[in-house]
Amino acid sequence: MLPLDHPTIPRPRIGVLLVNLGTPDAADTRAVRRYLAEFLSDRRVVEIPQLLWQPILRGAILTTRPKKSAHAYQQVWTDAGSPLAAVTRAQAAALKDAFGAEVLVDWAMRYGNPAIGDRLRMMKEAGCERILLAPLYPQYCAATTATANDKAFLALAAMRWQPAIRTLPPYYDDSAYIDALARNVTEALAGLDFAPDAVVASFHGMPQRTLERGDPYHCHCRKTARLLGEALGRPLTVAFQSRFGRAKWLEPATDTTLEAMPAQGIRKVAILAPGFSADCLETLEELAIRGRESFVAAGGTDFAYLPCLNDGADGIAMLRTLLARELEGWVTPA
Ligand SMILES: C=CC1=C(C)c2cc3[nH]c(cc4nc(cc5[nH]c(cc1n2)c(C)c5CCC(=O)O)C(CCC(=O)O)=C4C)c(C)c3C=C
Ligand SMILES: [Fe+2]
Ligand SMILES: [Fe+2]
């Protein structure tokens, strides 16, 4: 902790809280069960009445999935822990001094640790009277963006003296985001030892019904892909990954798309996940490991997974631009 009452160190007045989804504390069955129980009990994530859903979750799902998911987490776990947490921590560290000494930059997770409420209370104690909440989801989805904000407001509901709050809007069509992706992808494609027949943009899926009920996520994904394709000068193949449960999810599914490609003469593929601001289980295990395996098993010859923006220079410059815009009027530009 900073010695906040030291006369030469200015007290932060403003907080920026980067928020991502959350991840287990360890790659073992117990930790994954705890994480999944919290995540999948969120009514914004699974929109089935709790009376029906909880017995299914506590029965079939939490008795089988944690072991399987823990095995998947073990394949991507790093010395710094879960990739999602390691990258988000690194993003916060890279932005630490971006907005001057009066701005405290920190990070939190919607599920698990560090908890949003704990970090907001810490910021308040550190002197932050104004806080910018930044859910790091380019495309708005109630199951990600809204629930992160809900959780923050739940913590504020318990405060007698609340800080003022702003939230980062979705940035799916923002030129800072599209340009950062285009630069990142161009660089990654230039480093490949093959020319891909197709470039796939894989977004996390959601139930088709959520789209029909008015969630803009699907439209945001399509627009990101169109703008990125225009910036790259080549159309992207859009697909949706990580299907969960029995309901119909957004289509086409990434796995069936990859498996069908070799028979259509597409044997060399590059794939990216522009909806994830940080690499995580869904990109590193589902796309880079399992996606490659199924593509090659179907007759594909070359496969490259292109990393997310993460804490790379393009990604950090983009976050700086987006956050600085939301801090306008709170922070005097340097
Ligand atoms: C980026 C946007 C995301 C949307 C939209 C989203 C929706 C959504 N997800 C599930 C179920 C699961 N997701 C899981 C992991 C996971 N999901 C996202 C992002 C979005 N999810 C991320 C970044 C991660 C990775 C977490 C990590 O630790 O690396 C999982 C857990 C893993 C597993 O057991 O497979 C589940 C389950 C639903 C139901 C949903 C609904 C709209
Ligand atoms: Fe998910
Ligand atoms: Fe997955």
Automatic annotation (TrEMBL):
What PROSITE patterns has UniProt attached to this entry? FERROCHELATASE
> What keywords were assigned to this record?
Cytoplasm, Heme biosynthesis, Iron, Lyase, Metal-binding, Porphyrin biosynthesis
Q: Does the keyword Cytoplasm apply?
A: yes
- By its UniProt entry, which CDD domains does this protein fall under? Ferrochelatase_C (cd00419), Ferrochelatase_N (cd03411)
Hydrolase found in the keyword field: no
State its Enzyme Commission number(s): 4.98.1.1
The record's Pfam families line, in alphabetical order, gives: Ferrochelatase (PF00762)
Q: In which pathway does it act?
A: Porphyrin-containing compound metabolism; protoheme biosynthesis; protoheme from protoporphyrin-IX: step 1/1
Which superkingdom, per the lineage?
A: Bacteria
Q: Name the chemical reaction catalysed here.
A: Fe-coproporphyrin III + 2 H(+) = coproporphyrin III + Fe(2+); heme b + 2 H(+) = protoporphyrin IX + Fe(2+)
Q: For binding Fe(2+), which residues are annotated in this chain's numbering?
A: H204, E282
Q: Which GO terms describe its molecular function?
A: lyase activity
* Subcellular localization: Cytoplasm
Q: Read off the HAMAP family from this record.
A: Ferrochelatase (MF_00323)
Q: Which family does it belong to?
A: Belongs to the ferrochelatase family.
- Please describe what this protein does: Catalyzes the ferrous insertion into protoporphyrin IX.
In Swiss-Prot or TrEMBL terms, this protein is called: Ferrochelatase
Organism for this UniProt entry: Sphingomonas endophytica
Gene name, Swiss-Prot/TrEMBL: hemH
